[in-house]
């Protein structure tokens, strides 16, 4: 039975916030597992990471709300979530579904953006370490998150795919820097792997939304290239993830680290087959979400064993 969401209700705001897509938020688990055992239960470290996570949620919620507002105004969301696309859940786009108005969405985005800034400043204040590079990374992440589809509109200037990955990289490196004051090769490579996870389901969304994005001039790789070119790009990103997995033993991980991530490798192969072999792009996107979450579990378990 389909649940009816009342206009202006709490449920409509929950749908706007996309709180069920937790994939960026999982970075804090990877960071926690990367810490030395003595730091994993340190009150100061846990407190700072918890505050950072709250701020992260607020910032990303503001980002996706502004993305929905821009997508509604330029017509891309209406095209991509039209009634002839039954695989898409219309209530995930409250503006298109008519459960929220533009002023309500803009006000919600501004409130969560301001709250996110305040909470991240609190995280910096209570963090055990505040190296300059980490403070700068937090500031840059905040600024560009809000410019994703608003202001500078980075995703409308050919930066979307890079941003999806870079946001994941920052959300591992920044809290790790606040907890320890440093990074090493193993942390950097795992951050890179983590960031490719959201990208490797985002590119399948872009493949599905190619016509709507072309109509409004949103220059994703899928919109700018031919189907063959887009397929090569997705394969190349998948190959980059594989190379990073294979590089983990070279930067301090155990020799068997790639074996622990074998489920990720197999899921990526399945994702490519389903998406570009069978042509079921939205199912491939779902496989990408599962692959990312499996990757996080594998990274956490291995780090707890070897760190």
UniProtKB/TrEMBL annotation:
<dbReference type="InterPro" id="IPR000537">
    <property type="entry name" value="UbiA_prenyltransferase"/>
</dbReference>
<feature type="transmembrane region" description="Helical">
    <location>
        <begin position="162"/>
        <end position="179"/>
    </location>
</feature>
<feature type="transmembrane region" description="Helical">
    <location>
        <begin position="242"/>
        <end position="267"/>
    </location>
</feature>
<keyword id="KW-1133">Transmembrane helix</keyword>
<keyword id="KW-0812">Transmembrane</keyword>
<feature type="transmembrane region" description="Helical">
    <location>
        <begin position="185"/>
        <end position="205"/>
    </location>
</feature>
<dbReference type="Pfam" id="PF01040">
    <property type="entry name" value="UbiA"/>
</dbReference>
<feature type="transmembrane region" description="Helical">
    <location>
        <begin position="45"/>
        <end position="66"/>
    </location>
</feature>
<feature type="transmembrane region" description="Helical">
    <location>
        <begin position="105"/>
        <end position="126"/>
    </location>
</feature>
<keyword id="KW-0472">Membrane</keyword>
<dbReference type="GO" id="GO:0016020">
    <property type="term" value="C:membrane"/>
</dbReference>
<dbReference type="GO" id="GO:0004659">
    <property type="term" value="F:prenyltransferase activity"/>
</dbReference>
<feature type="transmembrane region" description="Helical">
    <location>
        <begin position="21"/>
        <end position="39"/>
    </location>
</feature>
<keyword id="KW-0808">Transferase</keyword>
<feature type="transmembrane region" description="Helical">
    <location>
        <begin position="132"/>
        <end position="150"/>
    </location>
</feature>
<dbReference type="GO" id="GO:0009234">
    <property type="term" value="P:menaquinone biosynthetic process"/>
</dbReference>
<dbReference type="GO" id="GO:0042371">
    <property type="term" value="P:vitamin K biosynthetic process"/>
</dbReference>
<dbReference type="InterPro" id="IPR026046">
    <property type="entry name" value="UBIAD1"/>
</dbReference>
<protein>
    <submittedName>
        <fullName>1,4-dihydroxy-2-naphthoate octaprenyltransferase</fullName>
    </submittedName>
</protein>
């Amino acid at each position: 039975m389909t649940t009816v969401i009342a206009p202006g209700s709490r449920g409509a705001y929950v749908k706007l916030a996309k709180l069920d897509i937790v994939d960026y938020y999982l970075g804090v688990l990877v960071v926690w597992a990367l810490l030395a055992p003595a730091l994993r239960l340190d009150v100061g470290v846990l407190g700072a990471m918890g505050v950072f996570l709250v701020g992260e949620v607020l910032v990303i919620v503001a980002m996706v709300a502004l993305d929905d507002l821009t997508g509604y105004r330029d017509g891309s969301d209406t095209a991509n979530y039209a009634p002839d696309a039954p695989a898409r859940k219309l209530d995930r786009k409250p503006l298109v579904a008519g459960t929220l108005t533009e002023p309500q969405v803009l006000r919600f985005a501004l409130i969560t953006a301001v709250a996110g800034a305040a909470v991240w400043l609190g995280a910096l204040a209570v963090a055990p370490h505040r190296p300059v590079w980490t403070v700068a990374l937090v500031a840059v992440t905040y600024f560009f998150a809000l410019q994703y589809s608003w202001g500078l509109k980075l995703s409308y200037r050919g930066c979307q795919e890079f941003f999806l990955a870079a946001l994941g990289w920052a959300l591992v490196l920044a809290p790790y820097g606040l907890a320890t004051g440093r990074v090493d090769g193993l942390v950097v490579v795992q951050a890179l792997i983590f960031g490719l996870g959201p990208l490797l389901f985002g590119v399948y969304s872009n493949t599905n939304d190619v016509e709507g994005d072309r109509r409004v001039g949103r220059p994703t790789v899928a919109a700018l290239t031919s189907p063959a070119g887009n397929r090569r790009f997705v394969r190349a990103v998948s190959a980059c993830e594989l190379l990073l997995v294979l590089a983990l033993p070279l930067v301090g991980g155990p020799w068997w680290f790639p074996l622990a991530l074998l489920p990720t490798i197999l899921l990526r192969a399945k994702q490519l087959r389903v998406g570009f072999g069978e042509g079921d792009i939205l199912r491939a996107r779902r496989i990408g979400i599962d692959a990312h979450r499996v990757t996080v579990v594998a990274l956490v378990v291995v780090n707890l064993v070897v760190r």
